[in-house]
Amino acid sequence: VNERYHSMSLISSASNWTEDCELVFKDNVYVGRVTLGEDEEFKFRANGSWDYNLGSPDAVVSGTAVKLYPDGPDMKVAVAGTYDIVLNLAENTAVFTLVEEEIPVVSTYDELATFEDGSVVRAQGYVLAANSRGFIFNLNGTIDNSVFVYQGADQSMYAPKIGNIVELVAEKGTYGEHAELTNIKSVEIIDASEQDWTATHLVDFAYDRPVFVRMRGTLEKNGDQWNVVVGGATRKGSIEFPAWDLSGYIGQPIIVDGWYVGGTTSTLSVVERYISYGGVDGGGTEDVVPGDDIN
User: Fold this and answer.
1) What whole-number distance in Å separates Cα of residue 83 and Cα of residue 279?
2) Cβ atoms 19, 40 nearer than 8 A
């Protein structure tokens, strides 16, 4: 069939086969944009009638022409989403092209916090600190916009390096009361140079988001927890999933510089950036970074 019908449309099970999505005739083909769900079945038909309809037994894959047959089987897309459709009656084919939806960009912590958990967002910034479960990510170059990126035990997609500038596509999550990024979809390294952030950069201080803190006390190990007992404090500091073995610190006075990522009534959790030892008064200390031997 190569003649132009009065109208061509797509109709689907989503409307219980009662509502037609009209296609537009342009340059000898019919075009349109539709959103198709998982397991949603559909067909093409002419003039809003089943007298002439087209289907196919073939899988509908984005970008691949599907051969159509009169009174053919109901069709399904391989991936749910929004598709641009080109229906060619001269060849009895249809091409479905999945439309890449624009991913919202977040540039501040407060923007990130407004999204529902599971929302996919795009963000760019510096890597400020890392542990064995993820890293602190500095949105938009300002310290009060730091957020924790949770990777879990698998860091094969990106091994964080302090000072890297990276662009992430990831899901918004919540850990405790804090917004975080999790379930990373993609990572692009914008600048691979490693830079050091000193305390002079870390001037803003608040507890409703990851912020830079310093703890002075004695290290103890309780089960899997590495805690810092701070004299006069009602809570202990907790070093979250340290990136290296801290056994050589147990019982020693230490200084921990890092990013606060949450707390309980008994602990305040920190992703460490520096751990210093040799005294708690600031003299004769030695900075230890991941990979160094502390024993």
Assistant:
1) 64
2) no
Average pLDDT over residues 215-224: 88
Element (H, E) at 271: strand 267-277
Q: Are 74 and 57 in contact (CB under 8 A)?
A: no
Q: Which amino acid is at 246?
A: L
Short-list 168, 162, 167, CA closest to 193: 162
Q: What is the dihedral of CA 149, 238, 277, 294, to 10 degrees?
A: -60
Q: Which amino acid is at 135?
A: F
- Residue 249, SS3 per DSSP: helix
Q: How far is CA 270 from CA 150, 233, 242, in A?
A: 14, 16, 9
Instruction: Please state, in angstroms and rounded to a whole number, the distance separating the CA atoms of residues 9 and 44.
Output: 6
**Is the pLDDT score of 240 beyond 50?**
yes
Comparing C-alpha atoms, which of 7, 11, 78 is closest to residue 44? 11
Supply the DSSP symbol for 13: G
pLDDT of residue 4: 55
The pLDDT, as a whole number, for residue 11 is 97
- What pLDDT is attached to residue 275? 80
Contacts of 80 (CB under 8 A, 6+ apart): 36, 37, 38, 40
- List, for residues 122-144, the tens digit of each pLDDT value: 999 888 888 889 998 888 766 67
Average pLDDT on 271-289 reads 53
Query: Taking the CA atoms of the chain, what radius of gyration do you get in angstroms?
Result: 28
| Distance separating alpha carbons of residues 21 and 44, to the nearest angstrom | 9
Q: What is the pLDDT of residues 19-45, one digit of tens each?
A: 999 999 999 999 999 999 888 999 999
Question: What would you measure as the largest C-alpha separation in the chain, in angstroms?
Answer: 89
